[in-house]
Amino acid sequence: MSITDVLEIFLRVRRADIAYIKFLIESYEGVGIIRTLDRHAAIIVLLAAPDFADTVRGIIAAMQQVIPCVEIPRPAIAATDWLLQPESD
């Protein structure tokens, strides 16, 4: 799978919710993973296989009913290869 085969959904959330969202998404085993792009600005990316796009969108919609979560355009700080980039400090 190349990086072009990965669905990237960028989200702005509350800092306090980053760990919860990571746990929530990764509890759906194999659906997606969360990477933190900027913990201070609370920007995360959800990475998923395109086959799970509908599932991921459903999870995000349900999550937005409980916690503030806004999809944003791809930020300039986004990686070009998620497997080689360390998470931000």
Task: Explain what you see.
The mean pLDDT is 87. With 89 residues, the chain is of the alpha+beta class. The chain contains 2 helices and 4 strands. The chain has one domain (3-72): Alpha-Beta Plaits (2-Layer Sandwich), CATH 3.30.70. A hairpin with a 4-residue loop joins strand 2 (32-38) and strand 3 (43-48). 25% of the residues lie in helices and 27% in strands. The protein has a 4-stranded antiparallel β-sheet, with helices on one face.
In short:
The chain is α+β, with helices and mostly antiparallel strands and 89 residues long.
List keywords for this structure.
alpha+beta; about 90 residues; Alpha-Beta Plaits; 2 helices; globular; 4 strands; four-stranded antiparallel beta sheet; single chain
Count all strands and give the number: 4
| Average pLDDT rating | 87
Strand content: 25-35%
Total count of domains: 1
Query: Ends: how far apart?
Result: 27 Å
Structural class: alpha+beta
- The tally of helices reads 2
CATH topology: Alpha-Beta Plaits
**What is the molecular shape?**
globular
As laid out across the biggest beta sheet, the strand order is: 2-3-1-4
Reading off the top of the CATH hierarchy, the class is best stated as Alpha Beta
Uncertain parts: none
| Order of helix and strand elements from N to C terminus | EHEEHE
